[in-house]
Amino acid sequence: MRAAVMYEARDVRIEDRPDLKIVKPMDAVVRTLAACACGNDLWPEQSIPDTGRDP
């Protein structure tokens, strides 16, 4: 599965992650065919400390 991972300020990467699994009876796995990042999705990125390096 592909996932957006926020490491630090201005360092957001797309990485492969393990596929999700159903663990509890109320769990569900939903297949997403298309997605995009909204500006509100990036607010947590602003709270990650900046190490001062250029991306």
Verbal overview:
The structure is a single chain. With 55 residues, the chain is mainly β. The protein has one domain. It has 1 helix and 2 strands; from the N terminus they run ββα. A two-stranded antiparallel ribbon has the order 1-2. Strand 1 and strand 2 form a beta hairpin. It starts with a strand and ends in a 9-residue tail after the last helix. The mean pLDDT is 80.
Protein traits:
55 residues; mainly beta; two-stranded antiparallel ribbon; 1 helix; 2 strands; 24% strand
Write the layout of secondary structure elements.
Elements (H helix, E strand, L loop, with lengths): L1 E7 L2 E6 L26 H4 L9
Antiparallel strand pairs: 1-2
State the helicity in percent bands. under 10%
Radius of gyration: 15 Å
Structural class: mainly beta
The helix tally amounts to: 1
% residues in beta strands: 15-25%
Characterize the overall form: elongated
| Ends distance | 24 Å
**How would a crystallographer describe the biggest sheet?**
2 strands, antiparallel
Strand order of the largest sheet: 1-2
Low-confidence stretches: none
**How would you spell out the order of helices and strands?**
EEH
The overall pLDDT, averaged over residues, is 80
The count of DSSP E runs of length 2 or more, i.e. the number of strands, is 2
Short description:
The chain is 7% helix and 24% strand. By secondary structure, it is mainly beta.
